[in-house]
């Protein structure tokens, strides 16, 4: 009975983490869209470094209030993880800056199959045909809804490949580090935030200048711009925390699926409330993607229930079960880049905010 109750609490916690991630990410996209498209503040990487600094300060206050316990672990792992996350954010911004929007969307879509491939090769995890089928439906739908033009160039292609690899590795590390060192999402975020922030503070102004031909330090910070920057930073606390929380409770693949759900929600928000132009192809793509997400959740839940008796038997014998839980549990296997640590949305001066 106690085990069943614990499983129910885990499921409720997972659902809460997923909802928090969706709400906070959609909110920050709306805020950043106003900040960039309307107010002209196009310095994405620098803004992300501020997000991380504010997140770290808020976590430090929470630690002082004893809302969580500081649990130091391998400093080299923390440093490498934090720097890698910072690099992946910069590469995603560069990828959008040197590629068309369509090719950038292809880059984001490639993260899921790349993550599946890496976890299959290096972690020997297995994905059922049902899971693979549902992911295929999801990717097809998002592709139909978002991909417009595909213009290839050598530099942009190399940057996209590096962005895919670093993002996949960073998201897989998020899950594996939490399980290996038995740290919570808050503890990992608190320790890795400074390294991510420092990486982006050093390289952010240079990358932003390269993409926008503007100087972030010479920008006219009006009261309105300052208010939106502060609001964006405050929302980013929830975005960053929910990112680590979701990946810790589920997996890198599930987080990517959630990221595409957020893309569809932002597109829908733009069509309905902001009167953005849309076509039947956009609507069809969103509907197909939603079907893929529903199938993915259903298959994950069904496989998790099938594995539950075996997992209980192994646990009673004192054996460890290293499968990663998904909505309930998954036989197999998150971006940080929608953003920040996947994070926040990336953009440049000529392209709209992308979820």
């Amino acid at each position: 009975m106690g085990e069943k109750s614990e499983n129910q609490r885990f499921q409720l916690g997972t659902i809460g983490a997923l909802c928090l991630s969706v709400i906070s990410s959609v909110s920050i996209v709306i805020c950043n869209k106003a900040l960039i498209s309307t107010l002209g503040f196009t310095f994405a990487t620098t803004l992300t470094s501020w997000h991380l600094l504010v997140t770290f300060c808020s976590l430090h206050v929470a630690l002082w209030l004893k809302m969580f316990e500081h649990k130091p672990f391998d400093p080299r792992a923390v440093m490498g993880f934090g720097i890698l996350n910072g690099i992946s954010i910069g590469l995603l911004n560069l990828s959008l800056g040197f590629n068309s929007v369509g090719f950038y969307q292809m880059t984001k879509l490639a993260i899921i199959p790349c993550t599946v491939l890496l976890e299959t090769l290096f972690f020997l995890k297995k994905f059922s045909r049902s899971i693979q089928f549902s992911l295929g439906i999801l990717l097809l739908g998002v592709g139909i809804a978002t991909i417009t033009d595909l213009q290839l160039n050598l530099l942009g292609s190399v940057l996209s490949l590096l962005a895919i690899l670093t993002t996949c590795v960073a998201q897989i590390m998020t899950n594996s580090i939490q399980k290996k060192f038995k740290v919570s999402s808050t503890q990992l975020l608190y320790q890795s935030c400074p390294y991510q922030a420092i990486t982006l503070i050093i390289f952010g102004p240079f990358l932003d200048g390269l993409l926008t031909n503007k100087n972030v330090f010479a920008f006219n910070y009006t009261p309105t711009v300052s208010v939106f920057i502060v609001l964006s930073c405050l929302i980013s606390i929830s975005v960053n925390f929910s990112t680590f929380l979701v990946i810790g409770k589920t997996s890198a693949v599930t987080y990517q699926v959630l990221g595409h759900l957020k893309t569809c929600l932002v597109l829908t928000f733009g069509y309905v409330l902001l009167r953005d132009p849309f076509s039947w192809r956009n609507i069809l793509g969103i509907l197909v993607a939603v079907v893929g997400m529903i199938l993915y959740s259903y298959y994950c839940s069904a496989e998790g229930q099938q594995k539950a008796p075996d997992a209980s038997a192994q646990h009673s014998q004192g054996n460890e079960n290293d499968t990663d839980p998904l909505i309930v549990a998954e036989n197999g296997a998150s971006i940080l880049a929608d953003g920040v640590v996947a994070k926040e949305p990336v953009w440049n001066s000529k392209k709209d905010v992308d979820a």
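The two ends are 41 Å apart (CA to CA). The chain has ten helices and no strands.
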